[in-house]
Amino acid sequence: MIHRKSRDEIKRMRHAGHIVALVHKKMKEVIEPGISTLELDSIATKIIKENRAIPTFLGYNGFPGSICASINEEVVHGIPSKDRIVKEGDIISIDVGATYGGMVGDGAWTYPVGNVTDEIKRLLKTTEESLFAGIAQMRDGNVLDDISSAIEAVANREKLGIVRQYGGHGVGHNMHEDPFLFNYKVGDHTLIKHGYVIAIEPMLNLGGDAVEVADDEWTVSTVDKKPSAHFEHTVLATEDEPLIITQILQ
Ligand code: MG
């Protein structure tokens, strides 16, 4: 069942989303060659706790970090480690959730480390574009397939692989709620209603679609080892324009 959020729930979610956005603002500032994913995790934890929120990911199904930090060919769910240090030319995807007043905000962004190749710039730009194409379809009266199709069209135009096994999801009292949202058209005509909140999160690859899970049982990587990008916002359908929940409140 898809839960429509009340005015009060939305208020708390926007505060959770604000904290997620604060973490991303800081990530953008501190990601540079030489920093470890564990240092990034510590910085994120500190910001979340200073804002009287809970790191949603920590302990979720036993996950050991507040962020997922996935480098280059890693798609999602990378475990923070002192031994994982980014270098010039890498990309790193940071996914983070914050729970405030019992409500969750969830957002991801892929950051370049120093200078990256033109191909990688195209991957990042296109994946971000596909996210916003999806967000534009998060409207009362549309169907889930409208979001999926919009994401797929942008990926196809640039001949990028679309990760099939993972996708967007409803979010609210829990990080993962109904519905599941595919990043490609599947014929899902579930109606979107105002009050629905969905984390829209395309994961696109410079190579093929295929991904695999590492022996650590978390880290998902592309099979062909080509780089992958991940951009995610938590988005509310309103009676008017879609509202991005994971943004800094003014
Ligand atoms: Mg998510």
Strand content: 15-25%
User: What is the CATH first-level class name?
Assistant: Alpha Beta
User: Main beta sheet, described?
Assistant: 5 strands, antiparallel
Overall residue-averaged pLDDT value: 98
Helix content: 25-40%
Structural commentary:
- It is a single chain.
- The protein is an alpha+beta fold.
- The protein has one domain (7-244): Creatine Amidinohydrolase (Alpha-Beta Complex).
- Helix content is 28%, strand content 25%.
- It contains four helices and 15 strands.
- The strands form four sheets. Strands 8-7-9-14-15 form a five-stranded antiparallel sheet. Strands 1, 2, 4 and 5 form a four-stranded antiparallel sheet that branches.
- Helix 3 (118-135) runs antiparallel to helix 4 (144-157).
- It binds magnesium ion.
Give a summary of the structure in a few sentences.
The chain has 250 residues and is of the alpha+beta class.
